[in-house]
Write a structure and sequence with these properties.
mainly alpha, Amino acid/polyamine transporter I, 80% helix, 0% strand, transmembrane helix
């Protein structure tokens, strides 16, 4: 069996895991949810739920991963001692591969817009129409480039690939966001955006829809349920204090989501000030792909040459956010092929990337029918059910003394601390109920 990789430093793991959690959803989903759901009141509820719901599930993945030192399939097989664990791991393997199949298409769009901005900066605008048009050849080319970029990083392994690039890309992402916030904040209309984002409407705080939205955002923004955190946890040194390192990951993820809002919402109101429509017919803020590919490009266009520079920086930011997530997704099936099937890392990466790209190709050829369906099937249905399964494994199947033994490696006095008093019963009783309620509410 090949020697397993390990993160060489605490900061390397935190930035890689936070990079996995900080995806496109943090930047295009979270800000508009905040502005549409009571401003800072939503942020407050989100912060509470991130630690009440997402953090305990994150800890379950990290503890299972580090204890078993294995990929998701073998790890759940080890702690359950039966085929049910392995089948759950394979379900996670398939889910994360399908998520990456549609994510790579969206990552390719980001890459195309970034290339277009770069070419415009040097005065080449003849390719703009093709780069910005929705066509199968363009989607195919840039999806392929995005998967190649992801594969290049994952081939390097844990230390020379994932950790090395996460330590470079995550600080770059934060610096770009900070510079863009400063620029946008001085534009006419930005003050109204800051008001929409930061002024709380506490009358909304107990609104069931707000609570469900905040719960979903907290859970999914940490990329839980599909084994990315379990696999990253398996590469963490036994000397690390897991509850503390898990809290650091959660805080970085939440922090990036909140500062992304400080950029996106003021930028939308600057766009409104410049004559760009930012509201849908029912009065809610435009979000998702329409926000990224319609509203913001129209804003960049309205501010002249500076807009080209801002556009290049913004789409560089979106590409980085997409890549730091995609490398963690690809690592889940690659780890399984390397450890369980004995493939060399390079071969495993090439095989898995090719299969996922083939899935992306099928989605592109049947875009109207498959794109939305795959997103719903994986993120709305499969991911929360996998999160529920992980809670059941950590809370009911795995022996408590084995969990305690694992936690003592990096924190010998954990038994007397607050974490051990709360977490075991919490992940056993509270998390499964809350996730189940959230799932049925979203489905119905």
């Amino acid at each position: 069996m090949a020697t397993r990789g390990e993160f060489s430093s605490r900061i390397g793991f935190i930035l890689a895991a936070a990079g996995s959690a900080v995806g496109l959803g943090n930047i295009w989903g979270f800000p508009t949810q905040v502005a549409s759901n009571g401003g800072a009141a939503f942020v407050l509820v989100y912060l509470i739920l991130a630690f009440v719901l997402a953090y305990p599930v994150l800890m379950a993945e990290l503890i299972i991963g580090r204890s078993t030192r294995a990929n998701m399939v073998d790890a759940l097989g080890k702690i359950s001692g039966n085929v049910l664990g392995r089948m759950t791991g394979i379900w996670g393997f398939i889910t994360v591969s399908l998520i990456l199949a549609f994510y790579a298409i969206v990552g390719g769009w980001m890459l195309a817009y970034f290339v277009n901005s770069g070419l415009n900066l040097i005065g080449i605008d003849g390719l703009s129409e093709w780069l910005l048009s929705f066509s199968t050849p363009r989607n195919l080319l840039f999806c392929g480039l995005f998967m190649a970029l992801t594969s290049f990083i994952v081939i390097g392994g844990v230390k020379a690939g994932i950790e090395k690039w996460s330590v470079r890309l995550m600080p770059t992402l934060v610096i770009i966001i900070a510079l863009l916030i400063i620029y946008v904040s001085f534009q006419p209309g930005a003050v109204e955006g800051w008001g929409a984002y930061l002024v709380p409407d506490f009358s909304r705080i107990l609104d069931p829809d707000l609570l469900i939205s905040a719960m979903g955002q907290a859970f999914f923004s940490m990329s839980l349920g599909v084994g990315t955190m379990l696999v990253y946890g398996s590469y963490v040194s036994k000397n690390e204090n897991l509850p503390s390192i898990g809290a650091s990951v959660a805080l970085v993820d939440i922090g990036v989501a909140i500062i992304a809002g400080m950029l996106i919402i003021p930028a939308m109101y600057v766009a409104l000030n410049n004559g760009v429509e930012i509201f849908t017919a029912d009065g809610s803020l435009i979000e998702g792909d329409q926000l990224i590919f319609t509203v913001l490009p129209a804003l960049f266009e309205s501010i002249g040459y500076m807009g080209i520079l801002v556009s290049a920086a913004f789409f560089a930011l979106m590409v980085i956010a997409a890549v730091t997530s995609s490398i963690s997704m690809l690592e889940v099936p690659v780890a399984y092929l390397v450890e369980s099937k004995g493939l060399g890392r390079k071969k495993a990466v090439v095989w898995m990337s090719s299969i996922i790209f083939l899935c992306s190709f099928v989605i592109m050829l049947n875009f109207e029918q498959l794109f939305g369906l795959v997103i719903a099937a994986t993120t709305q249905y499969s991911q929360p059910l996998l999160g529920l399964a992980l809670c059941l494994f950590a809370g009911w199947v795995w022996r408590r003394d084995a969990i305690l033994e694992e936690l003592k490696h990096g924190s010998p006095d954990i038994e007397t601390g607050m974490f051990w008093r709360i977490w075991p019963w919490y992940v056993r009783f509270v998390c499964p109920v809350v996730i189940a309620v959230m799932f049925f509410r979203s489905v119905l």
